[in-house]
């Protein structure tokens, strides 16, 4: 039976176990990252070499407590009261009053660790620094005797990105948040969802309109006046540009940018990053002859390419006007282009091209807005009439809705009939003319003529308070208040019309919108004295527009005063309560 | 009367003491693993083997003590021999908890040392008992 043999082997093993107990049990040194070796600056060479191979440029961490000094901040200079600074000499030590760092130890949870103790001996004359290297023992029975887990007791040095591990590091740390434990410990990795591949993008204001190959180009002058073809057209950004292009009759067919094909060749993507395409149709072609006369062509679906005819190069593009129709969801559904084609002869070396793009929402008539929602400085004020029981009706020409007299060069009121200039928001204007009154002018017709002159043919009744007020929202429109200052007298002729527009800032402080609150038209009249016959008088007639900002200043808000919340304890008056 | 009774009384006493001590050892080691996982950085890769080996050691210990006690009382050498073989495994596991654990605290060192001493003493007594039974 193998009993005795097995018994002998088991006995040997048991004795071996006993011998285990007799061996002094020491901390397994190579597994402790924090070197507790005496006085040698090198950590276990295996770790150090591996670290050096991986991190070519990062210096190795200092782990020897005798050499570690946290108060040594100045390089090659002695720090004050820093007893562990190696740049300090004995003379410096004699001037210290105390040691700012009295002890440098390793991890205090280890059972036994090295500690460097610095102290000043003030009894001696001069005071000198005492440095002791001792073994500090942690008396608790839960002190760490050994650890087989390298990263337990020190901060791990992060990996240096190189070409091998860059992708993995980017995947692990490239997100807004990442967990402290390595990726392999977690079940779910927080990679960015690929599910937004299904989400469709939409055009937003200012986003370049994408075509099949690149972007819809609107050539514009960049630094000089020469055309640059890399200006993309932004969605909902109405632009009009003019630039110069060099041409010659010889290269007529070779210059791409003067041919119609260049502008309608690539189809526009209806939605960014999609495959829905919208072809650019030719809406109209206007042919401009050499002397500048323009003719509208009847059939506009024919593509006219540049060609040389009788020493002229015809069908070169002088202007393109894009009209894009979009839905309110940010998709483009139609695109049309209107061309102006011209001809050049041998002497012409450069032509000026003009480009324009405008956007219209589908199923709406293009009502020109003067701001969205607040008025934009420089855009005309929208005004209109309100017949009984309906909304506001406006002049379709946005520059003719509210106008004032425009001064002419000859300054004669009665000669300059009809020229008016639109009132633009934010621009104070003054204009006028001179009226020559002769003796035989009758009062009433003169008054009527002057009123027509000052106010124009159709002076509106209502002004839109916001730049995008709709005609059907009557409450968004402000009535024009008329004031007449006159003296009671026989003949009053109006001499000045002053329109005062009071506006206020509306909305958030960060992006205030201009809103018109009040419009007052004041007509000042003066007495026209009857002149003796033969004499004449010249009166200046003035009309002006003034914009006044009546927004109240922002009020600061302060926090409430702090209150002292002191209460006596419940049993403060103990014996009596 | 002693010549007819081959069962070793010291061995039986040692089995009894071992059983009680092992319960204490198991609870203390489990508690300390829980303590280490809270206080130190104890990733799952390292925690799972430690816990698994502790439970394996508990199973082996129960088996070992049962077989040893039965073999000693019925004066048969086969269960006692099997128990001795299982003791080898227990010794290895105890050495693991003494040296190769993720965190070895001073308390771990103490209780594992006592356990190894007990195993050693038991092994010697088992060998003597087997020798007595066989002959």
TrEMBL record, chain B:
Membrane topology, as annotated: Multi-pass membrane protein
One GO BP annotation of this record: non-motile cilium assembly
Pfam families linked: Transmemb_17
Hydrolase found in the keyword field: no
Compartment(s) where it occurs, according to its Swiss-Prot or TrEMBL record: Cell projection, Cilium; Membrane
Keywords: Cell projection, Membrane, Transmembrane, Transmembrane helix
Chief location: other
PANTHER family linked: GEO07735P1-RELATED-RELATED, TRANSMEMBRANE PROTEIN 80
Protein name: TMM80 protein
């Amino acid at each position: 039976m193998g009993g005795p043999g097995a018994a002998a082997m088991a006995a040997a093993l048991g004795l071996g176990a006993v011998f285990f107990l007799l061996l002094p049990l020491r901390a397994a040194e190579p597994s402790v990252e924090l070197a507790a070796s005496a006085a040698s600056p090198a950590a276990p060479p295996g770790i150090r070499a591996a670290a050096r191979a991986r991190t070519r440029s990062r210096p190795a961490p200092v782990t020897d407590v005798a050499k570690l000094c946290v108060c040594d901040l100045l390089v090659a200079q002695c720090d004050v009261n820093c007893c562990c600074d190696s740049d300090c000499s004995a003379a410096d030590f004699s001037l210290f009053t105390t040691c700012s760092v009295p002890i440098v130890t390793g991890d205090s949870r280890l059972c036994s660790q090295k500690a460097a103790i610095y102290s000043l001996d003030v009894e001696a004359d001069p005071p000198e620094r005492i440095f002791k290297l001792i073994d500090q023992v942690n008396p608790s029975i839960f002190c760490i005797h050994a650890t087989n887990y390298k990263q337990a007791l020190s901060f791990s040095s992060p990996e240096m990105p190189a070409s091998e591990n860059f992708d993995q590091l980017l995947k692990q740390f490239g997100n807004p948040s990442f967990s402290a434990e390595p990726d392999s410990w977690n079940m779910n990795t927080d990679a960015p969802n690929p599910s937004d591949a299904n989400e469709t993008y939409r055009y937003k204001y200012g986003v370049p309109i994408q075509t099949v190959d690149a972007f819809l180009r609107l050539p514009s002058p960049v630094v000089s006046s020469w055309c640059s073809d890399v200006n993309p057209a932004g969605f909902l950004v109405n632009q009009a540009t003019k630039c110069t292009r060099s041409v010659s009759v010889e290269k007529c067919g070779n210059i791409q940018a003067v041919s119609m094909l260049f502008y309608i060749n690539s189809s526009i993507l209806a939605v960014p990053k999609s495959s829905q395409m919208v072809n650019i149709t030719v809406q109209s072609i206007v042919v401009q002859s050499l002397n500048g006369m323009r003719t509208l062509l009847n059939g506009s679906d024919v593509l006219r390419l540049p060609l040389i005819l009788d020493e002229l190069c015809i069908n070169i593009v002088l202007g393109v006007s894009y009209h894009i129709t979009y839905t309110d969801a940010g998709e483009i559904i139609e695109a049309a282009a209107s061309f102006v084609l011209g001809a050049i002869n041998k002497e012409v070396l450069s032509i000026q091209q003009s480009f324009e793009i405008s956007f219209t929402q589908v199923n709406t008539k293009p009502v020109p807005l003067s701001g969205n929602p607040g008025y934009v400085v420089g855009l005309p004020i929208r005004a209109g009439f309100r017949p009984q029981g309906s909304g506001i009706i406006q002049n379709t020409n946005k520059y003719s809705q509210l106008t004032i007299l425009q001064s002419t060069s000859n300054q004669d009121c009665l000669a300059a009939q009809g020229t008016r200039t639109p009132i633009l928001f934010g621009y104070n204007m003054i204009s006028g003319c001179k009226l020559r009154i002769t003796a035989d002018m009758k009062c009433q017709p003169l008054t009527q003529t002057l009123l027509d002159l000052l106010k124009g043919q159709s002076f509106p009744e209502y002004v839109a308070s916001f730049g995008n007020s709709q005609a059907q929202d009557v409450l968004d429109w402000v009535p024009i208040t008329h004031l007449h200052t006159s003296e009671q007298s026989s003949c009053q002729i109006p001499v000045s019309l002053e329109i005062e527009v009071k506006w206020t800032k509306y909305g958030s402080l960060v992006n205030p919108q201009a809103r018109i609150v009040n419009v007052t038209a004041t007509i000042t009249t003066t007495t026209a004295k009857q002149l003796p016959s033969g004499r004449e008088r010249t009166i200046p007639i003035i009309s002006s527009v003034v914009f006044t900002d009546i927004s109240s200043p922002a009020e600061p808000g302060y926090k409430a005063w702090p209150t002292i919340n002191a209460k006596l304890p419940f049993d403060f008056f103990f014996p009596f309560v | 009367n002693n010549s007819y009774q081959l069962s070793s009384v010291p061995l039986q006493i040692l089995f009894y003491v071992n059983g009680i001590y092992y319960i204490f050892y198991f609870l203390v080691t489990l508690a300390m693993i829980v303590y280490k996982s809270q206080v130190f950085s104890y990733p799952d890769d390292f925690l799972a083997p430690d816990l698994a080996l502790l439970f394996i050691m508990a199973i082996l210990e129960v088996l070992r003590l049962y077989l040893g006690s039965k073999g000693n009382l019925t004066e048969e050498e086969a269960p006692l021999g099997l128990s001795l073989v299982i003791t080898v495994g227990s010794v290895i596991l105890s050495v693991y908890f003494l040296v190769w654990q993720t965190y070895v605290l001073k308390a771990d060192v103490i209780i594992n040392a006592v356990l190894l001493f007990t195993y050693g003493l038991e092994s010697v007594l088992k060998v003597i008992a087997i020798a007595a039974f066989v002959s």
